[in-house]
Batch of 3 targets.
Target 1
Amino acid sequence: MIIDCHGHFTTTPPRVMEFRKRQVHALQTTGKPLDEPPPHITDDEIRSAIADNQLKGMKERGVDLTIFSPRAMGMDHHFGDEVSNVTWAVYCNNLVHRVCQMFPEHFVGVCQLPQVAGQKPGKAVIDELHRCINELGFVGVNLNPDPSGGNWSDPPLWDKDWWYPLYEQLVALDVPVMIHVSGSCNPHFNAVATHYINGDTTAFVQFMTSDLFKDFPTLKFIIPHGGGAAPFHWGRYRGMAIDMGLGDLNQRMFKNLYFDTCVYHQPGIDLLLNVIPADNVLFASETFGAVRATDPNTGRAFDDTKVYLEASKVLSDADKAKIYTHNALGVYKRLGRQLKV
Amino acid sequence: MIIDCHGHFTTTPPRVMEFRKRQVHALQTTGKPLDEPPPHITDDEIRSAIADNQLKGMKERGVDLTIFSPRAMGMDHHFGDEVSNVTWAVYCNNLVHRVCQMFPEHFVGVCQLPQVAGQKPGKAVIDELHRCINELGFVGVNLNPDPSGGNWSDPPLWDKDWWYPLYEQLVALDVPVMIHVSGSCNPHFNAVATHYINGDTTAFVQFMTSDLFKDFPTLKFIIPHGGGAAPFHWGRYRGMAIDMGLGDLNQRMFKNLYFDTCVYHQPGIDLLLNVIPADNVLFASETFGAVRATDPNTGRAFDDTKVYLEASKVLSDADKAKIYTHNALGVYKRLGRQLKV
């Protein structure tokens, strides 16, 4: 079974994002949350949004199951207050849940949290987390390390007061965290080209230089997009870890940390697989999202990452089984248990 | 001749940085620039700072010439007003100039600009630029794309009003620009591990998505640290360029853009050389700076990047000659002319 650990519901009907726009506009112009329920999306709309896109792609590419979450760019934590962001997160998570119910063999849910820029994750975030895991059967969460959307103005991931209460809930629920920023309201950062990759690198160094993994030894984090810049600069980070007295970088990081394979060319995947242990890589393609184009050199979609893995000269069959299947079942323990039943 | 295009004077006597600390402290506590001249550093101090460190390393590693600039972390644009930052830049540039005068066969200068967070580069920046190029014989400049030190609160590199007058001066002087952030005052970003690499990636995408190279067709930019995350995500960026209607990424970027080889492990250098044309790679090691440690796996310093280049299986002798020598002479045209005389 081939599990893609990183898919987003990017193909929702336009009414979904239009509602969010009205929500943000209402808040910005009136200072009050929009007094309007989110639009109903029919089963047929959801079915065709998925069947004609993600599921079609999965079948063509030989992917069996996608760990599926709301559109990352749409999480939009930097706009909206708590009431708006809870309404929005509940709505987006419910849409993902309906996909999972309609196509239970092909999709399992990961939730968006109703984070709010400038506000410590509190009861509203934890309530939605519990609802998604306990009631909807989701198996993980996306956590935005920069809910300020490119201003990086809230505390870093190692801040005990700000983040640790949430981590305690994640440990209690036994779910892993994918680090994933959302949109950018800083003109320096193109969201998908810059902010996503910088967010990954930033989270990596925060993990490397803090005691977070010591304080939460069982908590698992996935850094998407191949870990941002980290594998390319693995020598830099290994050396800095030694300079800082942090010891061997692999030993320090790889009880808790995983990188996905959303790296869209053969040399990048080759580097990732050369540098990062196969036990710590999860197959993913982030479809359909960041890049829609076909590579004119190969005639294949850039984001058809399975092609690069299959062409790897360093992966053994046992490594492939880990990356495609077993690592995901170990990290997303609730998924592992669901599939065993 | 082997030219290292990225070295910093990181080994100045402690009095140098102590002066900067007093400058910043004075400004923060009194609101006025420090009324004290920078400390005199003797020729002997400079000679031993270089001979026992950078020059020793260069000789051991077989590097002939280093393109040398003030300590990047010390540029410190995020602290200080214009008066303080001019005093500081002049002082730091003069120290580099004295190194170049003492060891003219081994060092050529690149200047620090007296940028100030929140302030458009104006007369003070341009005056120091002219002084360094015309009077001190420097051959290039370091430009900080985020003088706010991790807050990213000034305009991006494509902002015409903010940056273009400076670019016009650089074109007139025929000098290239190395993009290099300085320290970070944002707790999210470790300066050398995060901010440097994110700064590189950020600049890359700003170049890719803007008309800057069209507007300044002769201006050359070097992104250090192997281009941040860009080569690792080259497929992502190629695909996004197609999605955005920007055409072929290599054609778009490589008339104006160069990456250095400050990537501290073999797989990283292999990827860089696989993905980026040899015409657009400049040899560099950033000594002594980011990483001081020895790799326990190889017994070599992480930052001895020549070892990785020599071990590359894809570089021809002609490629090596470009990366070690000819590209630098073409990009740093004033250096090329100096060496021809």
Note: Chain A has a mean pLDDT of 97.
Target 2
Amino acid sequence: MTSHVALVSRALGCQKIYMTYLDESISKTLNDINKRWGGKDQFEIEYVDDWKALIRSWKKSRGVIVHLTMYGININDMLPQIDIKRKILVIVGASKVPREVYSMADYNIAIGHQPHSEVSALAIFLDRLSNGMDLMTNFKDAKINIIPSKDGKNIRIT
Amino acid sequence: MTSHVALVSRALGCQKIYMTYLDESISKTLNDINKRWGGKDQFEIEYVDDWKALIRSWKKSRGVIVHLTMYGININDMLPQIDIKRKILVIVGASKVPREVYSMADYNIAIGHQPHSEVSALAIFLDRLSNGMDLMTNFKDAKINIIPSKDGKNIRIT
């Protein structure tokens, strides 16, 4: 699950993913993807020991904290309120997100109010936030590039 | 992974998910969700033995076949071409989607051209297709309803 969260972050234009626990397999997956599809210098993983300190320093530097939760306010109502010129920290988690996250976040945003998954919630949020531009993401150092095709697989390898 | 595809389908307004293999744990997950969050009569799983026959009969009844693949044409270019008044069959799969799917599909659509996941691809596609209305999904027979909250969890149990 978490490796899919990482892949979505990378594919949809984030610069970094912070993780509260070390997971070698996720670093490995991302390194493999970065090697083939590019992004080595554009997307990275950072391990954070103290997530509360991260939130506090993010706020201090005028960043915005968004927590995705189905208990929050529907994104259809909230999106216009987010200042997209500021840097945004998106928090996603499984069911066990600590209570404090709800109060520390600037926005608790629901990607609908039905259970689905943090992968899908993050994907929709990033897509909405970028107004679709996330899906044009390309990395300069890619060894594989897809040539969009109507009915097959077409790639350019460099 | 597949149970997340099922949850996304249910949460974002699909009526049915067709599966090419039987998986008791997915039926169980969905039944549990439907019992608490509603949707028993609005969302179902159907096992299909012959997926090609399904595609052919879907086409015969004037349905549209959309295959989500990063090798396809970017959704930013394709979305306006899809006739949303027709019923739509969305095909997602892991890396091993048979070649024939590419030729049988009316549209091979890329939710970006970077690797992420079928869960995120499906989520973004459904969100785009419904123009955000998917995220207002609610089920009549729900026992639990979320009261959207700015900073906590607020539910109504009936």
Note: Strands of chain B lie at 16-19, 44-47, 64-74, 88-91, 107-110, 144-146, 155-157.
Target 3
Amino acid sequence: MLKEMRITEFLEKTASKDPVPGGGSISALAGAAAASLVEMVANLTRGRKGFEDVSEEMESISRKAARYRERLTDAIDADSAAYGKVMDAFRMPRDTDAEKGARSRAIQEALRLAAEVPLAVAKDALGILPLAETVLKKGNPNALTDGLVGVMMAKTATLGALNNVRINLASINDVSYVARVSADVREMEVLVVQMEKDILVGTQS
Amino acid sequence: MLKEMRITEFLEKTASKDPVPGGGSISALAGAAAASLVEMVANLTRGRKGFEDVSEEMESISRKAARYRERLTDAIDADSAAYGKVMDAFRMPRDTDAEKGARSRAIQEALRLAAEVPLAVAKDALGILPLAETVLKKGNPNALTDGLVGVMMAKTATLGALNNVRINLASINDVSYVARVSADVREMEVLVVQMEKDILVGTQS
């Protein structure tokens, strides 16, 4: 599993001419890193003197961020696996009409999964931002920079994953599915940029 | 070493209440991931049919990106080690005037190193962007999304690292050093945002 690789090894594999892991898995990794940083700030706050009032809230954020971290770490593998299924489908035989039909259906099904995985990554990465906002507002100020890097990583993870959704949508034939998901993608793209801006401005003041 | 940890283990350690690894090491990781993606696009281009004209350029980019990847991966550890030295200096005895002086000098020296490490990360991450621009313009279009995620990760790595420079500058007493590095930080912040914008706009058209 990619997530159990050493960092050096995982990055070497990314850099190689194999198409996976690529931008999709890296977006998931960025999201998992963002979750880790938010979790860290919450953990550096809860139970500390001077932060008694927010200790319970920080414990709850720490637990939520840990779930995002685990889910996004799993997505490093899920994204590459989904791409592998698309490649497998493209390699199916296409000598007869029946084979052509089966291959085409398998490709479409695989492409949909390859869109759904980064869509889930984008949603999770977006979900980290409100947690990040709270730890930046109420958490240990010594860890402010860690929280800020978390915000930027969550935004990049979201946009990177949405880019991967788009590229798969481009080959999907189901027009109503493509229209629906494209609208979601656009909405999330606007939302994440605005959320990051609001959090960064709110933190400076 | 952090860079030899499994991804899951490294992210768990980031999430823990230990102050390192934190935003500095994650910024270095983001830069290393960006370099990996650019290297991958170059490797997916060189030697391919239809890309004969750019094969040599792609080989050169692949080699340069690999060096950035290795240096930025090393910086995951260097950043956390630099923070450790600051903490060590703060723990020095301060009972006599001589001890107070030695401690203060050690703290200042450690803070400067803790600023220099992320400054080098920011410079390397920024250096990835022109390579990314070239692979996006001339490279294998099948890997376009990977290149775009690389651009976003390089920008985030730069801004994240510069945030870590700033936080250390805030405690450094050498006014002329702080003024000089602050000016560099501001210049790089403006530059990276502009470069990312130019590349993304240039890629869409």
Note: Chain A is about 80% helix and 0% strand.
